[in-house]
From TrEMBL:
Location within or outside the cell: Cytoplasm
GO terms for MF: 3-methylbutanoyl-CoA dehydrogenase activity; flavin adenine dinucleotide binding; monooxygenase activity
Domain Acyl-CoA dehydrogenase/oxidase N-terminal: 13-121
Boundaries of every Acyl-CoA oxidase/dehydrogenase middle domain copy: 138-212
Catalytic activity: dibenzothiophene + 2 FMNH2 + 2 O2 = dibenzothiophene 5,5-dioxide + 2 FMN + 2 H2O + 2 H(+); dibenzothiophene 5-oxide + FMNH2 + O2 = dibenzothiophene 5,5-dioxide + FMN + H2O + H(+); dibenzothiophene + FMNH2 + O2 = dibenzothiophene 5-oxide + FMN + H2O + H(+)
E.C. number(s) listed in UniProt: 1.14.14.21
Species annotation: Mycobacterium yunnanensis
The protein's name: Dibenzothiophene monooxygenase
Keyword Phosphoprotein in record: no
Length: 399
């Protein structure tokens, strides 16, 4: 048993097909992305687009009713969506990782059950796994359990069909169990308290569980430190990097539009239009070059992640470390480049681009908000410590 359904690599046809689907979906979202951001309400209609497009079922193997896509294809879809609507791209990114818990934590005999139900309903998977909160607790109740506790930053839980919750089982030497909770289960309460600077439609508010009934079949499995299952964390971080890259690309495209729309040129310059001003061209050249470097590294690790995932149970601790460190490098440069791009595009778009209705600020607000998910300095520490001493950080939901 290979412990993975993703045993092949994507074809060019697959990549081209889903790039086009993601781009079409993104452009539909872009029509009113700023207005929806201002309204700051849960994205029910937007998520229907993810379902109708097929992106919700992209990574589900075809034998279980899905589209049989690969991780790199899904990660590219996240990047493309982020150019147009980073909040919905975040929900897709988290969904792909949460749904993959079926493979990472469940016995293969249960894959057909969970994937079949998810594919049939085009389920979106939210999460309640934030490790900096006290753990959720499962207590025995007859043959099953009762789930209690609260999690902040439960992305997609309030809008998803199911929530992946990681909870301690309350026994001596407590295990952490990956558990699936349906959105409308009795005792599930969404606080509606997500009111951040950016990523406003990512449905990342708190969720509380009050004596929620959990059947034995709702438990996917134990969250441990076996190398293959812990690839979920580098996978999540890889999703972040693609999200940030997409935000940078979107900011550059919007800045280009605004620059071309500007009238005339600077009074002390010699160019007839801002687009021909050497200082404007220099800034674009610098930001485009740095973004292209991040793109190259992201493409490299998207493809390498496909290959390591395909190894399944043969994945070693060294394989896992290589992926962790390589993706951490990408996370560092993607974070810093996207922040710089979203900040510096104002240098070439001028004071008129700061008007609220223009919406250029959405890119900076989104990257500034999500890049604080976990400190990028600790990613630098992971990379530097491993290079100097060979040290590897403890396995967590952040490393």
């Amino acid at each position: 048993m290979t412990r993975t359904p993703w045993t092949t690599l994507p074809t060019d046809d697959e990549t081209e097909k889903w790039d086009a689907v993601a781009d079409e979906t993104g452009r539909l979202l872009a029509r009113d992305a700023l207005a929806r951001d201002r309204a700051n309400v849960d994205p029910e209609g937007e998520l229907k687009l993810l379902k109708d497009s097929g992106l919700a079922n992209l990574l589900i193997p075809s034998q279980f009713g899905g589209h049989g896509g690969h991780w790199s294809t899904g990660l590219r879809a996240v990047r493309i969506l982020a150019r147009h609507d980073a909040s919905i791209a975040q929900i897709l990114s988290y969904h792909l990782a949460n749904q993959a818990a079926i493979v990472f934590f469940a016995d293969p005999s249960r894959w057909e059950h969970w994937y079949g139900a998810s594919a049939k309903g085009s389920w979106l998977w939210g999460d309640a796994v934030n490790p900096v909160d006290p753990d959720l607790v499962l207590t025995r109740d007859g043959e099953g359990y009762r789930l209690n506790g609260r999690k902040r930053f439960a992305t997609g839980a309030s809008t998803g069909d199911v929530t992946l919750a990681m909870a301690a089982d309350g026994e001596p030497g407590a295990r952490i169990l990956a558990t699936v909770v349906t959105r409308d289960s009795e005792g599930v309460e969404f606080a509606g308290d997500w009111d951040a600077l950016g990523q406003r439609l990512s449905a990342s508010g708190s969720v509380e569980f009050h004596d929620v009934a959990v059947e034995p079949g709702d438990i996917l499995g134990e969250v441990g430190e076996e190398p293959y299952s812990t690839l979920v964390t580098p996978g999540v971080q890889l999703g972040f990097a693609n999200l940030y890259l997409g935000i940078a690309e979107g900011a550059l495209e919007r800045a280009r539009e605004l620059t071309l729309e500007r009238r005339g040129s600077w009074l002390l310059g010699t160019a007839e239009h801002y687009s021909r001003d050497p200082f404007v061209q220099r800034v674009f050249g610098e930001l485009l070059s740095r973004t292209a470097a991040v793109e190259a590294l992201a493409d490299r690790w998207n493809a390498r992640f496909d290959r390591v995932i395909a190894r399944g149970a043969d994945v070693t601790a060294d394989d896992r470390t290589e992926a962790e460190i390589g993706i951490a490098k990408l996370k560092v440069v993607a974070t810093e480049t996207a922040l710089e791009v979203a900040h510096r595009v104002y240098e070439v778009t001028g004071s008129s681009s700061t008007r609220s209705h223009v919406g250029l600020d959405i890119y900076w607000r989104n990257i500034r908000t999500h890049s604080l998910h976990d400190p990028v300095d600790y990613k630098k520490l992971e990379v530097g410590a491993n290079y100097l001493t060979g040290d590897v950080q403890p396995i967590t939901l952040y490393t």
